[in-house]
């Protein structure tokens, strides 16, 4: 009997373009699929399907999964879907602003506004919208 090998690699979702950050968060927390499933109240294969995008992530499921990681729903989204997500450098600037005097905050805000205007006029690089 002759067996044919079928290449299904194009049919399997590529995780370098994952639809969300569930797998990233799960690994960051050192959790298995089963660990997350136990916290969320579903089966491990369901968590896997959410990670790969094989199953759509509803608001209800997103809330449950976010709670399992001790975070909010927005943290489950990729950067291209979540313009409010901050990188470490942006977070450091905001933290510094929060501890600065009101006078210093106003000065920093003015500098940021002038830099944003200057950059927008003189740079073709796309910007994240606010």
Features:
130 residues, mainly alpha, 434 Repressor (Amino-terminal Domain), 2 domains, 52% helix, 0% strand
Describe the structure.
The protein has 130 residues and is mainly α. The chain has 2 domains: 68 residues, lambda repressor-like DNA-binding domains (434 Repressor (Amino-terminal Domain), Orthogonal Bundle), CATH 1.10.260.40; 35 residues. Helix 2 crosses helix 3. It is elongated. About 4% of the residues have low confidence.
SSE sequence, one letter per element: HHHHHH
Number of strands: 0
What is the name of the CATH architecture of the largest domain?
Orthogonal Bundle
Structural class: mainly alpha
| Largest sheet descriptor | none
Strand content: under 5%
Spatial extent as radius of gyration:
21 Å
Query: Please, how many helices?
Result: 6
Unreliable stretches: 11-15
Fold topology:
Elements: H1 22-28, H2 33-40, H3 44-52, H4 59-69, H5 88-99, H6 102-122
Helix pairs in contact: 2-3
In short:
The chain has 130 residues and is an all-alpha fold. The protein folds into two domains: 14-81, lambda repressor-like DNA-binding domains (434 Repressor (Amino-terminal Domain), Orthogonal Bundle); 88-122.
